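Researcher: Let's do a round of design. I'm pasting the structure tokens now; please hold your answer until I've finished.
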């Protein structure tokens, strides 16, 4: 829907965070008239990766989905851990590709939303763990949205 507003086809629209994120990352001017519900993105890590805290992500391969809230969440998570994208290897994946990549060991962590978090934990069992990132503990960096 943001494309309709930006393109002049509408004056106001409702949307989810992914199109808003994509618009913000493309430096398109957007304004919010009302609040937006937050998707509860989370991080699941392979137990063998030894990640217990956000800072332990240094040197790890993290699966995320570009142009969505996952990308914003990943940037925010790294910043809150005192890391930059250069400190990790970012792997752009669709959410449905993340579980197999995590299981195969080609990535160490995934940043995504439900039901992909629950599916990863259920399928991998003790081979996966959720990184503790309480809601509200990650602040979106200025200028991102």
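Researcher: That's everything. Go ahead.
Model: Designed sequence:
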């Amino acid at each position: 829907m943001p494309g309709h507003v930006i393109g002049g086809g509408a004056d106001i629209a409702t949307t989810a965070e992914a199109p808003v994120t994509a618009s913000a990352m493309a430096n398109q001017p957007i304004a919010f008239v009302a609040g937006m519900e937050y998707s509860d993105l989370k991080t699941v890590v392979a137990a063998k990766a030894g990640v217990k805290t956000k800072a332990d992500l240094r040197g790890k391969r993290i699966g995320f989905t570009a142009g969505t809230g996952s990308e914003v969440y990943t940037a925010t998570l790294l910043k809150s851990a005192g890391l930059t994208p250069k400190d990790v290897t970012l792997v752009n994946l669709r959410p449905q590709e993340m579980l197999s990549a995590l299981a195969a060991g080609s990535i160490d962590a995934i940043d995504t939303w439900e039901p992909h978090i629950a599916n990863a934990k259920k399928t991998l069992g003790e081979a996966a763990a959720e990184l503790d990132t309480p809601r509200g503990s990650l602040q979106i960096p200025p200028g991102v949205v």
